[in-house]
Amino acid sequence: MRRAYAVWWVVPAVLTVVSITLWQGNAAKAVGAPGTSPERVAGELLVKLRGLKTTYAGSAVVSAIQKGAGTDTRVLEIEALKTDPSVSRVRIAEDSRLAMTLAALKDNPLIQYAEPNWIYRTADSGIPDDPEFGKLWGLQNTGQLDAAGQLGLAGADIGVVPVWQRGLTGNRDVVVAVIDSGVDWEHPDLASNIYLNPGEAGDKSSNGIDDDGNGFVDDVRGWNFAAKNNNPMDDNNHGTHCAGTIGAAGGNGTGVTGVNWKVSILPLKFLTAQGNGTSANSIEAVNYARMMKVRVINNSWGGGGYSKIMEDAIKAARDEGILVINASGNEKSSNDDKPHYPSNYNVENMVAVAATDNRDQLASFSNFGKRTVHVAAPGVKILSTIPKNKYAAASGTSMAAPHVSGIAALLLSVHPEWTYAEIKDRLIRTSMRAQGLRTRVLAKGRVSVANALDGFVPPNDEPEEKWWRDETREMESPHPYPPNSNVEIKITEAGARYIRVVFDRIETEKTYDKVQIAALDGTVVEEISGIHDNYVSEYIKGDTLVLKLVSDNTVNKYGFKATKIQVIK
Ligand SMILES: [Ca+2]
Ligand SMILES: [Ca+2]
Ligand SMILES: [Ca+2]
Ligand SMILES: [Ca+2]
Hints:
Elements: H1 4-8, E1 30-31, E2 40-49, H2 58-69, E3 75-81, E4 84-92, H3 98-106, E5 111-118, H4 161-164, E6 170-180, E7 223-224, H5 238-247, E8 262-269, H6 279-291, E9 296-299, H7 308-319, E10 323-327, E11 350-356, E12 375-378, E13 382-386, E14 390-394, H8 397-414, H9 420-429, E15 432-433, E16 445-446, H10 449-454, E17 469-476, E18 486-492, E19 498-507, E20 514-518, E21 524-528, E22 531-536, E23 540-541, E24 544-550, E25 559-568
Parallel strand pairs: 6-8, 6-9, 7-8, 9-10, 10-11, 11-12
Antiparallel strand pairs: 1-2, 2-4, 2-5, 3-4, 13-14, 15-16, 17-25, 18-24, 19-22, 19-23, 19-25, 20-21, 20-24
């Protein structure tokens, strides 16, 4: 961008004839702040003479400047480029005359180009100066240990740093409602990113009047639906932790960094200090968020049963274009089989989020469901803000959902015109594939902000059905299997790129006893329970599949029998 030209472009002065002196001046200094206008070296320009010059032609450049810009324009320094003598770097005494000089040279037929000597810098590293940033593996996983000492897998993160490197770090115009236990809106790493209701700000914030007429008196920074007052201060920790992942102030030299360095967090408290709340109050919070026209709602909570009224509240939010991001639950169960609310409301603007660890594996506690859980995001040992200027690591799908809410907000800061449908679609389609997530979430992988922003869809690595070839292989468990079984059979087929098992029969105590299909590194791709005949398992990438049968201490059934595997080489 060269918009700075417009600022300092001036008309050439009237020509006068005075001599030019050449002398060494002070060292050049940079002008212009990064990120505002292009930086250039003060008083310097690059001049290219028309036609190839075999000998150095500095005097021709000086006379061109003299002729065009006037002899008040003193040339301090002139030097040809070593690699191209037709180009001279010229330094004049007064930076204020640079624009005029450039303009004059452009009109000179002997001069092919004249331009400022721009300053380039290495692309912004994108790494904020917040001292705890290095621990935020969900944002940048370099293979560091998590807070429990688990070694990370480099790159198993949400891919936000490449987005920050482009200078895209969020915008206060994007409002995210955190419906939770409140937010410590005074936390030094959050205070600058708390939403302030313009209709109740300043003198209006404590006058006891509903100045904006929205039905809530002095609701300057959200609302407390549990205590029915205007102070959504967090007395639990949970909401403040979620808020920090979405938008702890980035680059402020303090604490952690949110997915967004800048965003507006609307704290809506309905969970009490004990971490529970009612359907009625959660519905109030969703309706309030809709009324305030937020773009994203984060729901890091769940339980209870189906509520038609809540479903209607979410549909009303949908009709206002609001994206609703929900934790999928921490019961280790399939939401395809056993619904979890609110994440299971089947409304177009709902996104259910499973949790991953720092190796792109489904978290041990996370719910899943390849039809009902849309995406997966980091949720194990996530460091974030907690009240009273403190920080703590926490695990849960509660920690995964705010990563996705943060991503949605960051995308909206770049593309405010994107609809909830566009964002949801991108989150799902552009997720990074991971073997441990393929059968667990609709996206078959973990979310990536960079991919979502660019619309980059990772290559489909799924094999085509027609490629499979049979190999005879007989495997069976004891019949019946004993209590507390831990059968493990390692199946290797040299040269195989993909491998799976075709079972003649599986019969286990449903839910309690399971046949597992795992990779060599322990990643469980499928769990099969109950009765199945002629069952084709999910595949494992690579030449080895680990077949397991795990059972509890009572009710033992037939187990499994297989007479072939299938491979793709
Ligand atoms: Ca009000
Ligand atoms: Ca007021
Ligand atoms: Ca910070
Ligand atoms: Ca059993």
